[in-house]
Fold these 2 entries.
Entry 1:
Amino acid sequence: MLQDKIKQYSEEINQFTPTSAADVEQFRLKFLVSKGLVKALFDEFKSVGPEEKRTLGKVLNEFKQLAEQKFSEAQAQFSGTSDTQSKKEGDLTLPGEGFQLGSRHPLSLARKEIVEIFKKLGFVVSEGPEIEDDWHNFSALNFPPEHPARDMQDTFFVEKKEGNDIALRTHTSSVQVRLMEMGQPPFRAIMPGRVYRNEAISARAHCFFHQVEGLYVDENVSFADLKQTLFHFVQELYGEGTKVRFRPSYFPFTEPSAEMDISCTICKGEGCQLCKYSGWVEILGCGMVDPNVLENCGIDSKKYSGFAFGMGIERITNLKYEIRDLRLFSENDVKFLSQFETEII
Ligand code: PHE
C-alpha cells in the first residue's frame, strides 16, 4: 500500500544521520534522482482511487518536502566550512569575497603611455589593416622595385598578385599612406599596431612585434619640429634630463632620415650591458616625409611638408622593465604577466 510505504520511508528519512558527504549522496540517489523513490511513489499515486487521492496527495507532498529538506540540511553540513552556513543565513559582517583581477600586458601599458603623450600634443590615433597590399606597404612609400625589404626573407607574403602582392605588413608606415590618401593636410596622427617580419624566433628577434608610427604633415613643418616633438616625448616617457641624439640614416620614405638614440635609461649613460657600454640606446627611426611619398598620396609637396617617425613598442618596454627575452611577451606566462600593473576599469 502506498500509505504504508510513505510511512516507512518517512521514518527512514527522519532517522537518517549522515556521517560523510558520501552518505548524503547515497541519500540523494535513493530518494531524489529521477529514478529515485520519491518519483516512484508519485508514479504509484497516479493509479490510486479518487477517494484515496484526496488524502494521500497531501501526505505524499509532505513526504517529498521532508526528503528535500533533509537533503539540503545534510548537504550544508558537509559542503565545506561553517562559513557556507553563515553565508546562507546572510551574515553581512563577513568580509566580501575577493576576486582576482588580471593585469595589463606590459606592451599595452607602454602603448597606452606613448599614445597619451602624443594625444596631449594633438595627435590622433589612426589604424589600418595587418594584411596589406604592396602599394601601401612598399610602393607608395618609395621603395624601389628591387628593394631588399620586399624580399621573401623579410616579408610574409599572403598572395602573389600581378603588380600588387598581398602580405602581412612589415611596418605601420602603411597606415601613413592610408591616412594621407583619405584627404588633405593637416595630418597629425600616431599609428600603433602589430607588424610581421620573417625572422627566426630568438631572445632578440621575433616574427611579429609592435610599432607606433607618427606622422605630422602641414605647411612649413621642419626638421626642428621633428626634433622638438621627439625630445619632448622622451622627457615625458623616461623623465626630464633624458638626453637625445640624432644620427643620419636612410629610409626610402623619408629624406633626410635619422635614427634617434637616448641616454641609456638603465645606467643613465654610465655604460651597461643593455647599451653595450656605449651609454646610448637607439629607440626610433624618423625623418622628413619624402616628397615622392606625399605626391604618391595626392598631396602637393611644394605646399606641404611633414615628418614621420616609427618606434618598436617592445624596445620602449624593455628600456622600462629590462625584459631581456622578447619571447616572454607572447608566451602568456602568468608568472611574467602578473608582475605588471593591475588596472581597475
Ligand atoms: N617604418 C620604419 C621601420 O619599420 C620606421 C620609420 C617610420 C622610420 C617613419 C622613419 C619614419 O623601421
Note: The chain has a mean pLDDT of 90.
Entry 2:
Amino acid sequence: MQTRVLTGITTTGTPHLGNYVGAIRPAIEASRDPTVDAFYFMADYHALIKSDDPARIEASRLQIAATWLAGGLDPNHATFYRQSDILEVPELMWLLTCVSSKGMLNRAHAYKAAVDKNTEAGEDADAGVTAGLYMYPVLMAADILAFNANKVPVGRDQIQHIEMARDIAQRFNHIYGREFFVLPEAHIEEQVATLPGLDGRKMSKSYDNTVPLFEGGARRLRETIMRIVTDSRLPGEPKDTDDSALFTIFKAFATPAESAAFAEALKGGLGWGEAKQVLFERVEADVAPMRERYDALMARPDDIEDILLAGAVKARAIAAPLVSTLRDAVGLRSAKHRPVVQAQPRVAATAASKARSPRFASFREVDGSFRFRLFAVDGEELLLSANFADPKAAGAVRQRLGSMGGAAAVVESQGDHLALLLDGQVVATSPAHPDEVLRAAAVVRLREALDALAAAE
Ligand code: TRP
C-alpha cells in the first residue's frame, strides 16, 4: 500500500538555499521511496493571493518547476503539476467553501495577523484584506482533498491549515453521509535543518537574508556566501561552530566526516574568509550539476510546459472522478445519465462495494426496449447501452463487453461523450465528460473496468 504524499509550493519568489535544503531536497528524496506516491505541485493560485504582478507569477512558476526537475525530481515517477491546470481544484474549493465555517476561517493565523495589524494601526479590521487571503485555507484543503492525500509535508506555520483541511473534510463526510475524504495528516520533517540566512536568522525572503540557489550562477553564490555574518575573530583564533550560520549551512551539504574536519579546522584558527571559500566550494559541488540542468531547462520552456501538462493529465485522472462523485453527492446531477445506484465512496470501502468487480445492470425502458448500464467498482457509471428491441441482442452485447478486455475496446469521442463501438456500431455511451482530459481519463477507467470484467470471467 502506498502512502499518498502531497505538497504545494507557492510560486512567488526565486528558490534559495533554504528552500532547497528545507523542502525541495527532502521531498525529492521522499519521492524515490517506493512506498510513497508523491504529488508535488506549483501552488500558483495561492501565489495570486500574494502577488498581482503577472510577470513575477509567470517567471516564478517556471523557475520553481525547473528547480524541482533540476534537483532530480522524476516526473514519470512523481505526479508533478501546476495547481491552476487542475480545473477540479477550484470546483472542489466551492463545494468545500459551502461546508466551511466562517468562524473557523476567522481564526486562521494569516488572516488574524492581518486583522491585528490593522487594528493596531487604528484602521478598519479588514483594510487591505482580500477574500483570497481569507479563503486561502479552503483552497489549500481543496488541493489536498482532491487527491485524498494521506500525508502533507509542510512547515510548522502550515499545521493549522492541515487541521482546517481535516475539519472541512470531516464536515463534508458528515453532511453527505459517506467517507468521501480521508483525513490528511501534517508531516513535519524533524531532522531537516532550517537553514540560517546571511544574518543568522532563518533564511527567508521576508528577512532579505537569502542565498540564491541558481540565480546569478556560481559567481553570485560565491559573492553572497562571502556576505555571511561571522564574529570578529581573526585568523589564527579558534572559532566557535555552535552558533555559526556558516558552519550550519556547511553541515546541511556535507557528510558528517566533512563537517567534523571543517569544525576541526575552524577550532584550529582557520580564518573566516578562507572558511567562506571552503563553504562555497562545498555548496557549489552539489549545486553546479543541478544548475547546469536548470539552465538547460530554462532555455527550453516548451519542454517544461509539456512535462507539467502531462503531470496535469495524470493528476486530473484522479481528481476528476472524485469531483464527479462529489457533484453527484451534493445533487449536481445530470438529468439524463441519472445514477440508478448510489455511487460508492472511492476511498473507504463499504460492505456494499465488496463485489470487487465492475457490474452490469439491465433494465427495460418505458418504450419496452432493453438497455443496460456498466458501473465501475466504486459505483461510477461508465456506460449506458443503446436501446435493443430484443433482450437477447442486449445480452449478446453485454456478454461481448464482459469478455473483450480493455485493449480490444474501440472507443471514440462523440461530443462530450465517449462512444463504444462493436463492429462499427455504437453500442453504448458514457456520461458527459466536458473536456478532453476528462474524456481521456474516462477511457482509462473504462478500459480498466473491461479488463477487470474479462479477468473475472
Ligand atoms: N500554503 C503552502 C505554503 O505556503 C503551500 C500550499 C498550497 C500547500 N497548497 C498546499 C502545501 C497544499 C501543502 C498542501 O507553504
Note: Residues 346-456 form a domain with the PH-domain like fold (CATH 2.30.29.80).
